[in-house]
Amino acid sequence: MIDEEGLPAHGLPAERVLDGIRALRSGDRPTHGGRLFAYVYDPAVPGLDELTAAAHAESAHVNGLDPTAFPSLLAMENALVGAAAQLLGGGPGTTAPDVVGSVTSGGTESLILAVKAARDAHPEITEPRIVMPVTAHAAFVKAGHYLRVAVDMVPVSAETLRPDPAAMAAAIRPETVLVVASAPGYAHGVIDPVTEIAAVAADAGVRCHVDACFGGWALPWLRRLGEPVPAFDFAVPGVTSISVDLHKYAYTPKGVSILLHRDPELRKTQYFAHADWPGYTMINSVIASTRSGGPIAAAYATLRHLGEDGYLRLAAVTRDAMNELADVIRAAGGLRLVAEPESTVICFTVTDPELDLFVLVDELAARGWHTQPQLAYAGLPRTVHLTLTASVAPVVGKFGPDLADAVAATRAAGPVKLPAELLALARSLTPEGLTPDLVAGLAAGLGLGLGEAADAGAEPVPARMAVVNTLLEEVPAALQERLLVEFVGLLQRPTWSRD
Ligand SMILES: *Cc1c(COP(=O)(O)O)cnc(C)c1O
């Protein structure tokens, strides 16, 4: 019996409360064990969870709102920023000795702040814009949406999945405040030509942000191991800011990313200060005001516990597992890597139209392997994304046989054929004309237990997602977005403790 009630009439003993959380957690995908290739980053280091939980507890009630009231937090933040800056080509003795930075809650916040800092450096530009490859993270579009900054997208080559720097240069206008490159892009794990992109930005006098949210804490170790990692950090002239998520390859608990700027002047417009009200004078470096010290202390503990030697070892383990897994994909028959692995991502598609990639994703899930399907987009094929971490190494040998099995089952099942009336319904929809009834009809047709159906006990997300993914791929992006908003809106409904 799972208690979902938030506020019981009578308080419960601690053990009972924890049992309730554990019961809820048992329905989640596994965060440890190396079989979930997205969302989680697991180094499989014994004792690390206990250490970070204790560190989090030490600082959970400390407030990052005021660095002078809690110097412990300021010291830990400065240590994290220093470590990130030195890993990424900054600090004493480098060509970027004045690098500064801030600790944020995640990659999205780091990117929003990079865009804000760039925008606010140019108050004279009334309609600011950014230039990025289509493969740059969706969080830049979110930043543009929040901050009213227009986004100019540059296509990538279907072969290399990289943008042409000349096309990036051509997209820069007088209103452009920021040019973006990724190291690597999340979807395919491909590193953009950072040197060339930063050069065209510098030529135009525009800031250049390198989104190393994913790779910033993995690529430097791979380089030290001798892998051919291209230049992407502050060693590259023209790079003005870099983001790196500690809650990815620094293997810290969620809620910690770093935004670095080449010098303090570039960071100034990131801050928000306000003295024009009767309350305390406010100065915030990041979006949140009150912030828990918990994630920061947990990250600090993780870095200190693992150390450089620990991260090097984890990178070597991850690289070896990745090479093994890439060979398995190459040998599977009917599958193709969309790019040679150059960071810690494996991304593949099908070469055989009889092999339905979305069905394969379901077949792998049925065998306990949770991969991430990505829809076809603008001439790029649908793909499967695998985020590799050190935790994959112990189980990588089991993947090959399961993949072979899943491929055979996928062939036997054949490609998804959407029921004609479902397809007709989906094609008749427009973002403006979407009503709750239409959404409910579509959800029912897809076997999703949303709204009424949820009350009847159906699962919110069916075990098989191939039909849902196929349908989403059939409709334009604007409609996909509206449908997703409606579906999640149906999931996010309050739990009432009284009828
Ligand atoms: C994960 C990621 C982000 C967004 O980070 P969140 O921590 O999920 O907000 C941005 N860019 C890249 C390249 C990423 O991999």
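^ pyridoxal-5'-phosphate complex. The pocket of pyridoxal-5'-phosphate is lined by residues 106-108, 111, 137, 139, 182, 186, 211, 213-214, 245, 257 (CB under 6 Å). The chain has a mean pLDDT of 94.
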